[in-house]
Amino acid sequence: MTVHPEAPLHGADVLLADLDGVVYRGHLPVEHAVDALEAVAREGIRVGYVTNNASRTPGEVAQQLRGFGLSAQADDIVTSPQAGVKLLKEMVPAGARILVIGGEGLTTEVQAAGYTVVSRAEDEPAAVIQGFHPSVGWTQLAEASYAIQRYSIPWIATNQDWTIPRAEGVAPGNGTLVSAVHTAVGVLPTVAGKPERAIFDAAVARFGAKAAFVIGDRLDTDIVGANRAGLESALVLTGIDRGKQLISARHEERPTYILDDLRQLLEPYPWPELEEETATVYVRDAAVRLVGNRVEIVNAGSDPTDLLRAGCGVVWASGLSIYALEVPREIYER
Known catalytic residues? Predict the structure, then answer.
């Protein structure tokens, strides 16, 4: 297989892939993801992984990916704990005590940077850093709250993902835990991971990318972050965000491409075509038009994703808020 000149990845030298919902859900690989990523690597495109998940070390993540059959090493993984510790270094000198709320993926990064990890507010930490781990509960959140209130110290969150995709379904993410602390202390954390561009800049620098491309499953983190970093992006419909979120996406949340699965990274992309006279957008045999404030299906076509692409093309080109438009459910419910 070669990269088709009309494929999303044509011209890219590095693919920056999210993990949860893109490569795997929990302990199971996403269908077609492994074969597609190996095909990308065979084309000479470097594959790196950029994740907000702070629960595991890069080595553990790489081991799981190798278990799926991917050629991954720890240095291929760029994590929000790494970005969080970079922020920590700008705020607190090495050797200080840091209250860590999270798992090994976060504590190892904090320790490697020369800090002392503590778990209680009474240890008088110089900062709090918070990341996701399934074991985090009320006691740890309370200790973070006490420390932030008592000492008025920096509070860093590795990410604010509200949800995470698991094999069993969608579960609460770090954003829900961060929100619990925010409710108690009345202040907001400094956020390290996606959608902040720092983590993308770090990934581009690590892999020496000249033309990096982002693939993700979340508009509010993967796609917003890619847009802020000036990178092309694709939303893959195998994780959190689907048609309903896409068609109502704000300008900064809109991806360059909409894909069913990772195989389409190397395949010709069906670009929407606008017929200005009739305000109709065509994607292959699907056609959608705008009449007043009504979005109408001219032809549903043979591929539901083409219909979604056409619907997004009409809504996004209108310049109108989704709340001002009447949109048939058939366009975005797939």
Answer: 18, 20
